[in-house]
Amino acid sequence: MFSEKKEKKITAEPGSAQNRINEGTNLKGDITSTGFFRIDGTVEGNVKTPSKVVLGKTGVIIGTLSCENADIEGRFEGNLQVSGTLSLKSTAVIDGDVIVGKLAVETGATMNASCVMHSGTFKSNSEKDQTHLDNTKPHPYDRQQRVKKITSQPETE
């Protein structure tokens, strides 16, 4: 009756625990957590969490950041994937590729990146290719298509 061992289920839900990388700390490698991150040091590698990431004024990430929400005050270089809201503070410097659900930018922030906005979910490459193919079909009100049609018709007198 009491000897049954119950297995603990491991889930990837956002946790309430806070992970902090303080100023003066340099990490090289990949970090995965279910909790909130505050980074004031330097991380060279990939950071992945289903929660929020705050990159402080002295914080630097060089690599990939994948999270739900992010507030950036420091420097980021690489691929940034935020399914929710990305908030760039006035001291933020972003270089690389950004995929985001929502974007908020304060005056003074620097963003040298290609940016793609999605509605909370990221598409796979095959879905992106299909969307691109769907967008290449001629639109019935496209002026260029009408001009081509008119000029290609032989004149009748």
UniProtKB/TrEMBL annotation:
In terms of InterPro entries, this protein maps to:
BacA/B
Q: Which family does it belong to?
A: Belongs to the bactofilin family.
Renumbered residue ranges of the record's region Disordered = 1-24, 121-157
Question: Bias regions of kind Basic and acidic residues — which residues?
Answer: 1-11, 125-145
Source organism superkingdom: Bacteria
Q: Which PANTHER family match?
A: HYPOTHETICAL CYTOSOLIC PROTEIN (PTHR35024), POLYMER-FORMING CYTOSKELETAL PROTEIN (PTHR35024:SF4)
Q: What is this protein called?
A: Polymer-forming cytoskeletal protein
| Source organism | Aequorivita aurantiaca
